[in-house]
Amino acid sequence: MTRQFGDRATFGVEIGEIASPGLRVVDLWAADTWLTSDDNAAYVPSFVLSMRRDAERVRRGDVPPCPFPGRPPQEIHRLLLADQTEFREQFWFLQWGETVDNVAAFAYRDGDLVIVFQAWPTKHSVAQDRAEILAVRIPPDDFAAIVEDAAAVLDAESPR
User: Fold this and answer.
1) CA-CA to 139 of 20 to 30 Å: which in 21, 73, 131, 145?
2) Distances (CA, A) of 159 to 25, 26, 56
3) Do the Cβ atoms of 36 and 100 come closer than 8 Å?
4) Which of 136, 60, 71, 147 is CA-nearest to residue 105?
């Protein structure tokens, strides 16, 4: 039985079967895009820690404001991805381990939480430069609640 939190159109977490002790099938979705298409077996202890860290960061308002006001999210993503300084690191988002190695995601505040990302079918895809850049807007409290609720279920239901 799959447990769903949020929705695929904006941001969603779907928790599936136990793969083995410590591993759980977890699918992440944003903008109707399956982010964990390459690897959806999450190592629960570190995955939950990363989830909670992002949820807390969003709840505290520690996500910085839009780095390039007035520009479209796709351009902002390209600019941040090209930045070779520490500036872009404050915007890195969804750094939740191997399950999202095929995703480059940034987040910033622009009223709502804006998550802008590229996801490739596999982390070794030769088409990385051609992957579509997508963006979702979600109220910060909604994002945090989705992630916190999913993390609580993963923590409670997954054997170690």
Assistant:
1) 131
2) 13, 15, 24
3) yes
4) 136
